[in-house]
């Protein structure tokens, strides 16, 4: 979890306000909106879920909060993301049930892998949208691939993933995970 979090944070630190209106591989989200989504799920909700706290706790910021409007937002995210990774690095986070959103409790391992996927998939989305490269080692790619393979069809039914993108079976494992998650590994930023 720590390596996935660090990979996403490296990308987030490389994004300035001039990129907030750029397109991403998520057609409905510009860079700024995707940053706010990533910060909320991996820096706020993911942390609370790892601690088994219910969604919408009294002191929690609400979904839709403009994190990127705050001073030093990228460093604040780095701290939040590290705290989430630390919580999910404890074995007890992976036991029992927890909730990431208000849609009910689910097995903690299911939620934990969603948080991992948020860091890596949206980290990649933000990286390619801003001309950066996400650092994903072979172990992270394998964990992500296995997780996506197990839930891709369900994720598509709920509109979380788009249609599968065909990727060569000899492509790197991370690229194949991206394809299963409805992303084109060769996606490029639109020309200005």
TrEMBL record:
Residues 3-127 form the Mycothiol-dependent maleylpyruvate isomerase metal-binding domain. This is TIGR03086 family metal-binding protein. NCBIfam families: maleylpyruvate isomerase family mycothiol-dependent enzyme (TIGR03083), TIGR03086 family metal-binding protein (TIGR03086). Pfam families: MDMPI_N. It comes from Streptomyces lannensis. SUPFAM superfamilies: DinB/YfiT-like putative metalloenzymes. It comes from the Bacteria. InterPro entries: CHP03086, DinB/YfiT-like, Maleyloyr_isom, MDMPI_metal-binding.
């Amino acid at each position: 979890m720590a390596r996935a979090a660090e990979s996403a944070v490296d990308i987030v630190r490389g994004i300035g306000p001039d990129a907030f209106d750029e397109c991403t591989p998520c057609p409905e989200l510009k860079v700024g909106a995707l940053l706010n989504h990533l910060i909320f799920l991996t820096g706020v909700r993911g942390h609370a879920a790892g601690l088994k706290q219910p969604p919408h706790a009294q002191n929690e910021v609400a979904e839709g909060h403009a994190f990127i409007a705050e001073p030093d937002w990228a460093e604040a995210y780095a701290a939040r993301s590290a705290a989430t990774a630390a919580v999910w690095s404890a074995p007890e986070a992976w036991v029992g049930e927890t909730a990431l959103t208000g849609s009910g409790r689910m097995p903690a391992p299911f939620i934990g892998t969603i948080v991992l996927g948020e860091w890596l998939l949206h980290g990649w989305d933000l990286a390619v949208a801003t001309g950066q490269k996400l650092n994903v080692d072979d172990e992270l790619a394998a964990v992500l691939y296995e997780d996506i393979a197990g839930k891709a069809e369900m994720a598509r039914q709920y509109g979380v993933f788009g249609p599968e993108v065909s990727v060569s079976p000899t492509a790197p494992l991370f690229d194949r995970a991206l394809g299963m998650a409805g992303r084109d590994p060769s996606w490029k930023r639109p020309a200005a």
